[in-house]
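Researcher: Next sequence.
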Amino acid sequence: MSDTAAKPDRRIAKSKQALKRALLTLLAEKDFQSVSITEIVRLADCNRGTFYAHYEHKDALLADVIGEVTSGLIEAFRAPYRDKASFHLDELPYTSVAIFDHIYRNAKLYETLLNGNVLPNFREQMFRTLKSVSMEDLYVAPDESSSKINTELQIIYQTHALLGLTDHWIREGFPYTPEYMAEQLLLIVNRRPGKVVLKHGGMP
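Model: Next structure:
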């Protein structure tokens, strides 16, 4: 690509990133329906013409933000098994788990999008995305103990568990490092529960 062609591409990317950052900044203060295009372009330091050169309306801008974060989420989710034909969960190093690092690097974005007043169905979108990727990518070879388990129900359970863990981590203000979260996730997934003892010796 020539320098002449590259410069417009860089300008376009820079303008779109400025618009996306402006939208996220505004979403940290108010719900999406209350955000105006005028506010977005003012904060992004551009004009309405620039906005409409890239997006038909503010919903298209939000869709671009969601698309970008979703692509990053999928890439991070697939990181432990990328380029593998098969793997054993109990042999995965915690350093291969990238989802917590991805979320931490985009902390402000996830904090904003998981705010129920901003985008009420974002967590559900995350669930549908990871469930779909799991159903498409993964097959757990059955053994005697798991032959009766419904694969889809297992994936639904595991996806909700993962999102519950990440959601708690985000809402508590990231009290643990991404590395610690990755290590804990694998310890939890690989644990084989034994006898469960009631703390108070039994129900009254």
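Model: The radius of gyration is 21 Å. Residues 1-55 form a domain with the Arc Repressor Mutant, subunit A fold (CATH 1.10.10).
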